[in-house]
Amino acid sequence: xxxxxxxxxxxxxxxxxxxxxxxxxxxxxxxxxxxxxxxxxxxxxxxxxxxxxxxxxxxxxxxxxxxxxxxxxxxxxxxxxxxxxxxxxxxxxxxxxxxxxxxxxxxxxxxxxxxxxxxxxxxxxxxxxxxxxxxxxxxxxxxxxxxxxxxxxxxxxxxxxxxxxxxxxxxxxxxxxxxxxxxxxxxxxxxxxxxxxxxxxxxxxxxxxxxxxxxxxxxxxxxxxxxxxxxxxxxxxxxxxxxxxxxxxxxxxxxxxxxxxxxxxxxxxxxxxxxxxxxxxxxxxxxxxxxxxxxxxxxxxxxxxxxxxxxxxxxxxxxxxxxxxxxxxxxxxxxxxxxxxxxxxxxxxxxxxxxxxxxxxxxxxxxxxxxxxxxxxxxxxxxxxxxxxxxxxxxxxxxxxxxxxxxxxxxxxxxxxxxxxxxxxxxxxxxxxxxxxxxxxxxxxxxxxxxxxxxxxxxxxxxxxxxxxxxxxxxxxxxxxxxxxxxxxxxxxxxxxxxxxxxxxxxxxxxxxxxxxxxxxxxxxxxxxxxxxxxxxxxxxxxxxxxxxxxxxxxxxxxxxxxxxxxxxxxxxxxxxxxxxxxxxxxxxxxxxxxxxxxxxxxxxxxxxxxxxxxxxxxxxxxxxxxxxxxxxxxxxxxxxxxxxxxxxxxxxxxxxxxxxxxxxxxxxxxxxxxxxxxxxxxxxxxxxxxxxxxxxxxxxxxxxxxxxxxxxxxxxxxxxxxxxxxxxxxxxxxxxxxxxxxxxxxxxxxxxxxxxxxxxxxxxxxxxxxxxxxxxxxxxxxxxxxxxxxxxxxxxxxxxxxxxxxxxxxxxxxxxxxxxxxxxxxxxxxxxxxxxxxxxxxxxxxxxxxxxxxxxxxxxxxxxxxxxx
Length: 870
Hints:
Blueprint: H1 12-21, H2 24-44, H3 47-60, H4 78-95, H5 97-126, E1 137-145, E2 150-153, H6 160-167, E3 171-178, E4 186-191, E5 194-203, H7 207-210, E6 215-217, E7 229-233, H8 234-241, H9 244-247, E8 251-256, E9 260-269, E10 282-285, H10 287-292, E11 304-310, H11 316-323, H12 328-331, E12 336-342, E13 351-353, E14 356-359, H13 362-391, H14 395-403, H15 408-445, H16 453-477, H17 484-489, H18 497-532, E15 542-546, H19 555-562, E16 568-575, E17 584-588, E18 600-603, E19 606-607, H20 611-614, E20 619-622, E21 635-639, H21 640-646, E22 655-657, E23 663-670, E24 686-689, E25 695-700, H22 705-719, E26 728-729, H23 730-736, H24 739-773, H25 775-783, H26 788-822, H27 833-860, H28 863-869
Parallel strand pairs: 5-10, 7-9, 19-24, 21-23
Antiparallel strand pairs: 1-2, 1-11, 1-12, 3-11, 4-5, 4-8, 6-9, 7-10, 8-9, 13-14, 15-25, 15-26, 16-19, 16-25, 17-18, 20-23, 21-24, 22-23
Helix pairs in contact: 2-3, 4-15, 5-13, 5-15, 5-24, 13-16, 13-18, 13-24, 15-16, 18-24, 18-26, 18-27, 24-27, 25-28, 26-27
């Protein structure tokens, strides 16, 4: 069937576009002209080309002189609108004081808590990132392959850095420092009659060329050129000389565990910043460590930490593949695998398991980032909930305004402006709260955080706008779209959508709060578990201290003097801290017939006589080290786990091969005990004998602590007159192993309290709103004979159901999160059912207490007043 030209119409969408944008006074004439042109085109061209010409003509008409203004053809007084909306907003705050203060307190508290956490997170992420070449600075690590596992070390040979610079074109520069875990010089620097305790660093000559510790005084080219030069920090130089100029060229005497030597101050450097993991007061040439211990210049000595500056654009995976077997030819051993990782990354990602990076401090950073987001989310939900509740009261206001000419845009502007204004006030209050509580927060976190508003201005503006927009989006975009006639006639007064939105938000809020409760219970119980668990040794009334500086006499001389003190029950010494948990040794084998029996690694603390007796470690076979048997380094004692590893039935008398070190005879077996913290499993352990150790372990008679410590200090001062006596209790040292977890527990307790408080504020506000909204229903029910308890049951029923739904969602989520956190420990509590039951019941009880005041108040209201108000 043929189609006549009169039946062919221009494209519908282009016609709609024309009618949408062209001003009304021009539309009729333009539309008619466009239709005539379209009909002429149909006579001369094809239908397709005629339509394209029509579309092109429509777009050509989109000129400012012909198109409508986006806000309508009328000119609006925006300043007047802003003043009017501000006045309306302030009146609304005054009229609804309860909801205003609940919103303000809840949001400002949540924002303040989140800001404090973000300050801490920002500080943690900034650690060691201050070096100018941070993006190119890498740390050389080594994986050492053992028969059943892989050990990861952040220390390598002192020859490594310079050698890699020569052998690999990717390496621009390399710097070497002494292993800060073992070989960091600490001692007394003397300037005339004044003595100062100083932490130093062995470093290669180019230390200040590569790492960003700016020199304030001195020639950078030769500042560490010889072994007589020392570079002091600004802080130490000021303490010793009063000004920097007097320090340069002065001579000082430094006594430490490596040497007693006179130095000339060749320069002053700016003290390391607070976010540097390496804190030191002086730098000296690495060659001094080589002079003190020749192994510091051998390929098989782990005396150094090496840092490389790689060329920009270096592919790290390819570079690691090139260097992984670099040690094979150096020491004729294929057990070492080298790799590099970013220098600044080691602080957050410093934990390795079987040669694989598995986490570190980053886990706590992630944990508290999530906590901050949760708290902020709870506060925002609280804000949105009350905003939507109050907004439903404004439907008649919307209807009246739209009737007298208000358009949708002006209403959106009003509601969003009201929400953003309240959010801005909350942000201001939050900043005040942060400044008030920052000192206490620093005490909990052991930080020195400061808040600089300029640094946070953009995030604060973003939080203000996003929170304000979210909270105001419901009234702005939903209520402003109602038809005024329907609103004023009350045909849409019984909305169900907004109620379901509020219930969903409350459920989310309480899910997060219950997870917080589960987390707090889990963390605190695990901390309590670590404190009370039997570790296999006694730590009550045990005092420890380390001898400092040069030791010219045998350790037994001082031990003999201390044994004369009546208050000392038992005394011993060892090399290293008993709680360190990382002292280890490899190279042991006991079954020549097995190819796998080679180079086993043991936890192997170095102890002297009487340590096992002083700490009351149980000997289950054989004996302890004894002077009567003239024991020396050829004798060792192992634990039960070592016996299981060896698979020997009669361990006493077994001879272990120690490679070039000769042999070792097992003289005793001790019961397994916790060496180090409970983050580590009990592993095969071998006690090595060393009677020259600097660390003393003393058991003091109960009730004589003060007098005995004073007498110990007097003897210590005789042997070390320049040094302060700084004893600690083993129990306190053990608790310090869990300082991170203790901080996590303290912060989690506070943050959980804040989260629950904000949730309760929101619930209280909703209960108030519900009671007001259902006042007519309450009046009618009371007239019909309903008791106070029935009214309270009706009002609390919906909240009870909401919290129960929250419990169902929160319990499995809480279990997963709690279990993941406990995986950081080798020995943990059991996540028993009562933990989750307690969390759920606590949430329910908190909700009941929160809403009970308002429901009881509503139940007591005279029904006549309820109906009169309606």
